[in-house]
Amino acid sequence: MKYQNIKTQVIIDVDSKIGGSNWVEVGKPTKKMPKIKSKKPENTPVNDTEADNVPNNITKDQIMKELDAFGIKYNVNDKKQALYDLMMKGK
After folding, report:
1. CB atoms < 10 A from the CB of 87, how many?
2. Which pLDDT value is given to residue 77?
3. Angle, in degrees to the nearest 10, between helices 60-70 and 80-90
4. Dihedral class, residue 18 (left if φ above 0, else alpha if ψ from -120 to 50, else beta)
């Protein structure tokens, strides 16, 4: 029998019956289709190449000091990612 894991989408072929809420038999109709969580959030920025690329060891304060050193104006209320993107464009 073939079973598919609804979380990982992995399909396995085994001789025994598999139980558990994450496994469904392939080809067998189910009462309801399981929802598969999308790995990509719906409100992802359009420009995905610059999203979440701030190194963890850099603080917002350090980024603001670099922007000051470059003479780049910024809004102190901006998020760390926006300030980092501004700093990287200014270099």
Report:
1. 21
2. 93
3. 30
4. beta
Locate 3 and state its tokens: 């079973």
pLDDT at 13 over 80: yes
Residue the block writes with tokens 């000051």: 68
pLDDT at 9: 86
Given its phi and psi angles, is residue 9 left (phi above 0), alpha (psi -120 to 50 degrees) or beta? Answer: left
Mean pLDDT is lowest, of 2-6, 10-14, 33-37, for 33-37
Asked whether 9 and 38 are in contact (CB, 8 A), the reply is no
Average pLDDT over residues 70-88: 91
Per the listing, tokens 């929802």 go with 35
Helix, strand or coil, per DSSP, at residue 5:
strand
Residue 44, φ and ψ in degrees, nearest 5 = -70, 140
Give residue 18's identity as a one-letter amino acid code. I
